[in-house]
Amino acid sequence: MKRFTLYITLLTLLLSSCGIEPVPIDNLTILGGINNNQLVFEGKAGSSTTFAIASKLPWELLDTPGVTYSPSSGEATERVTITATVAEPNRTLATREVGKVVIRLNRTRFTGITAVQRPLVTTDQQQISLSSEQSVYTPFTFKTKESDIEVLSEGDIVSTELKMVGIDEYSLSVAATKDNQTTAEHTAGHLKFVVAGTTLSGNIAAVQKPALSFDRSRITVGGQSGEHMTVSVNTNFDFTVSSTSTAIAVKRNEEGLVDITVKEGNTTNAERKLGTITVQLTDNPACKASIEVWQRKALADRTMMFYFLGMSLKSYYDANLDNVEKVIKEGKLGDTRILAFIQSSNHSGKLFELFYDRGLDAVVRDPIATYDLPQVYTEQMIAQILQDMTVRAPANEYGLYIGSHGKGWIPKNSVSLGGGGSTYSTFSAEHLESIWTPAPGAIMTRHIGDTTSTQIDTTELASAIKSTGRHLNYIVFDACYMANVEAAYDLREATDYILGSACEIIANGMPYSEILPIMASSATLLDRLNSSAKAFVEYYKTHREGAYSSACSAVIDCHQLDALAEVTKRVNGSLKRIDPNTVQSYDGISLSRNPTHIFFDIEDYVIKSCTDTATVAAFSEQLYRTVSGLHHTKTFYSAYNNKANPIDYYSGLTTSAPIMLHAMSAYVTEWKQCAWYAATH
User: Fold this and answer.
1) Could you read off the pLDDT of 391-417 as tens digits, one per residue?
2) Which of 150, 364, 486, 532 is the most buried (most CB within 10 A)?
3) What's the rounded Cα separation, in Å, for the pair 208 and 184?
4) Cα–Cα nearest to 6, from 49, 42, 47, 51
5) What contacts 630, CB < 8 A, 6 or more positions away?
6) What's the predicted TM-score (pTM) here?
């Protein structure tokens, strides 16, 4: 048996007039049988238990009322096992304290151990919760080692016959004999236990639920005219519903729920009270419950829309939403509207709004729509979801947070469609996919689409956004490689700003609990985005170690991209040939799979390849106006080589232009078809 030492309280009784010194505490050691300073007996009379001690002095166990010890004294010993026996049964339903265990060594007494006795009957249920309706049975279980056991029902309850359902485990069911037609809990009766002819003290209360209650203390509806909400009423009885306000239409639907429809939009600048709705029992109108209905303002200052696409990152998306809910409950987002789309399977998804419900004191996910997703994702699918988001939560400022795998501007692959590659490529689909195969042992990053059927081109995303009729104020890409000039140029007319990463993003994604309060603050939009870009990188500097301390950020002003394209066109008129692999890259793609990297630092490339120093200076000046919020860790992690890669030069924005310097590079044909190429050549 493994030896262990239990330190117990030392109470020294000294005869100070005789000059007796206290005995050192290490003269007595408890070797076993004592847990949490307790000596525990079973509930029966005569129950025994053992514990062991070691003593360097003669020892004696003083009397504990109702407990006998054998042996009760002895000489110094390295180990002695003592049997303790309790005389009386525990005739209550709770663990009782029998007394203190006191060990005397000479004139010193060791205390701190309590003798306790378990009840004859134990149960996890402190009371039984019954339906408000009579004759609805609720199961109740308990444990006992006694065979002579009887359960009595007192009050307005009945119980079924006692059944043995396991070793020392019994079950019965309890029901009320009368309806509780009040809006308060009602104690209908009690269960009493009789063991061997003796009734135990204490009982289990059988409490009936109220006849009527709402599942929250207040209702908050949307700010638009025609907003609809369905509310549950906790009742087993037929009821009617009415409203004190002409601004609210209420009715009981076929499922027994209350439908609420708002007739007016809230054009004020604050939440407002619309009125009260009341439900009452049809057969007992005196029994009724009421609840206030409040309405959010129609036009929010800000709406944040989360679009989590694909299933391979589902657990990370769930954690992201948990962080969103955390800051909502903490009240850090003000009246910002939060909507989220997340897939529940490969072919279905749900859109809901997250908000703090004061009535429930919880963040709720109010469902808006469910979607049957096509086998191959389309621009129309994206547009419909974004349209539903913006219609549900009109605002002065829209921000779209896209959680997904990402590949910058790289076109989606058509391998799942039976095609030979991307739209223009002469390379096979298999070859293109092999470029993006993570290295053995790599941790997950947001590096590429779940499957080729779930990928969306940046041109399709831009078109989908514009088709909603709502211009986005910013997009946050919680996806890899999206701080990319070719991708940003495709999106320049769909949004004002883009916050993205030049490299891969660790699968955990962005720290929303830190970013969202910044984005809900009163600073200017650009300042908020720049602060969020910094918070993102600082999080990975402090919360990850080694190779996984990896993050890059940049904020792109889309209004400056046309000017950047103009100066880049001048750059392309004064190029010299360089080795593309001398330019700072942000992917770990093995050169055995492709002769070049795919994503390169745009300024490092211009400086090394452009022969006109004045043009280089003009380019850098315009790049400074285009990109801000530049932050990065010392290295970036890539799943494609499963290691940390150095960052020696950083401008925040990438380009794939250097792939043109090697004829056998993948995506050369595709790159010549992108809008950025057309604007810069």
Assistant:
1) 888 999 999 999 988 889 988 764 333
2) 532
3) 9
4) 51
5) 533, 553, 554, 650, 651, 652
6) 0.72
Instruction: For residues 345 and 256, give the distance between their C-alpha atoms in angstroms, rounded to a whole number.
Output: 30
The band of 13, judged by pLDDT with boundaries at 50, 70 and 90, is: very low
Residue 551's identity, in one-letter code, is A
Q: What is the pLDDT of residue 618?
A: 97
Q: How many CA atoms lie within 13 A of 271 on its CB side?
A: 15
Residues 382 and 491 sit within 8 Å (Cβ to Cβ): no
Cβ-contact 306, 338 below 8 angstroms: yes
Yes or no: say if 28 and 54 are a contact pair by the CB < 8 Å rule. Answer: yes
Contact (CB, 8 A) for 675 and 488: no
Q: Are 151 and 159 in contact (CB under 8 A)?
A: yes
Tokens representing 678 are 């057309």
**Exposed/middle/buried for residue 270 (C-beta within 10 Å: 0-12, 13-18, 19+):** exposed
Give the residue carrying structure tokens 């002579």.
148
Query: What is each CA distance from 78 to 28, 31, 242, in whole angstroms?
Result: 10, 10, 80
Largest CA distance in the chain: 107
Between the alpha carbon of residue 271 and those of residues 22, 223, 314, 669, the distances in Å are 71, 8, 34, 55
Find all residues with CB under 8 Å of 218, minimum gap 6, and list them. 291, 292, 293, 294, 357, 358, 359
Task: Tell me whether residue 468 is exposed, middle or buried, using C-beta atoms within 10 angstroms of its C-beta: 0 to 12, 13 to 18, 19 or more.
Answer: buried
Residues, the chain: 681
